[in-house]
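Budget justification, computational time. The allocation requested in the original proposal was used primarily to generate structure tokens for proteins on the priority list. As evidence of use, we reproduce two of the resulting records. The first is shown immediately below.
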Amino acid sequence: MIKGFYSAVTGMLVNSNREQVIAHNIANMQTPGFKQVLSRVEDWVDTGVEFSPGNLLRDRNVKYVGQLGLGAMSGPETVDFTQGSLQSTGNLTDMAIEGDGFFRVKTPDGMRYTRDGRFIRDAQNNLVTTEGYNVLDSNNKPIKLPEGDLGVSPEGALTVNGAAAGNLGLSIFKDPKTELTRDTGNLFTGPAQSTGTGQPKVAQSMLEMSNANATRLMTEMVEVARSYEAAQKMVQNQDELLGKTIASLGRVG
């Protein structure tokens, strides 16, 4: 009976965590460059089950039946790095990466990677993110632009009024799922150097939208809510059964 409690309670905890992950994805469906987070459910603890066909105290005859699961737990979260759709903005400082690759930006905690290309010029003509972090060039130096119209080639070469103005710092990774770790906002931490091959392609005046799918997320939210309610009812049933058992033992005594 206690084992039933374990299964039911862990079911509630797992679904509560899944709900938080889905809510985070829903909240960022309109955030450019956002990569949805995927949750995973794993077995919690297994215990051996034995059966005695006769009187256990007298016969000592016990047969091994198998393993019984005591519930579930949340596994490590992963990030879905599939590309979102590209949307035209008409803003010269907006940029999107087509295919693999990441922009490099400088934060107070060090270099970070992002797919969010909502860049702007600050008061000193530095190219920065919406959070104010410097966008880095190919030498990992902050990009400072002269006054004028910005141009960006597919290879990340920058020009202002037709004159060369540097190159975007772009990185590509062989396996982002294992090499990159989620940081704050749309930022990721990872190796200091690219581990993949190829050249990221940049599209100017475009933004990559979130890869979260609204229909799928709403379906998952309904599924999680129903699973949580089912586990909650199991806890209530287990509690009632345990109460009746204790009351019955009390009467026998």
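The second record produced under the same allocation is shown here.
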Amino acid sequence: MISIIVPTLNEEKYLPLLLKSIKRQDFSDYEVIVADAGSKDKTVKIAKNNGCRVIPGGLPAKGRNDGAKKAKGDLLFFVDADSTIPDKFMSKALKEFTAKKLDFAVFGLLPIESKKIQKIAFNICYNWYIFATEKFLPHASMGVLVKKDIFMRLNGYDETIKLAEDHDLARRAKKISKYGIIRSVKIFISDRRLRKEGWLSTAVKYFLCELHMIFIGPVRSDIFNYRFNHYDEK
């Protein structure tokens, strides 16, 4: 069984799209756990109406960790609420995961709301970059497939990290397990953060975050002012 774990906070707009894409999969041995951080909209109702297990969450790292503790599956798939997965995603991902004998896998990403030139820029700045650095500098973002026993050995996500805790998890995972990037499928993501904060400023922020992680260590201060779900604020 695969346990699909989704951290949420006021995701009534996007969560139905993710859940619909999950239900379209040609794979049925899964559960969906929604770790909700106190939504004030219809997020929890939507999750329950779609057969999800709903548990208390918090910031994304805490929500994912708490979801993993409740998971029944021997494989964990962490995905963000504002993402969707294409048809046959799960069967293709599992086939490649097994063929490569992976323990920890990540995916390329494709923003679905952007203009063509922005998608090209994103593909170069993120996908090409993580492919180029796969062997020596692992990355993970918005989609992680990992064996539960490996995740537990890692003690999950580091909840003291303010930004890029998923990259930190991937780099720790590579030290004790086989890490790789799934190439047969990509995850479709919303570009709302990029639109809200600006494409260039967001790119600069994550570039500086990468340098911080390489030369100083994980980002445990609030220097990059990361916030969880503030997209509808005026």
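A brief technical remark on that second record: The mean pLDDT is 94.
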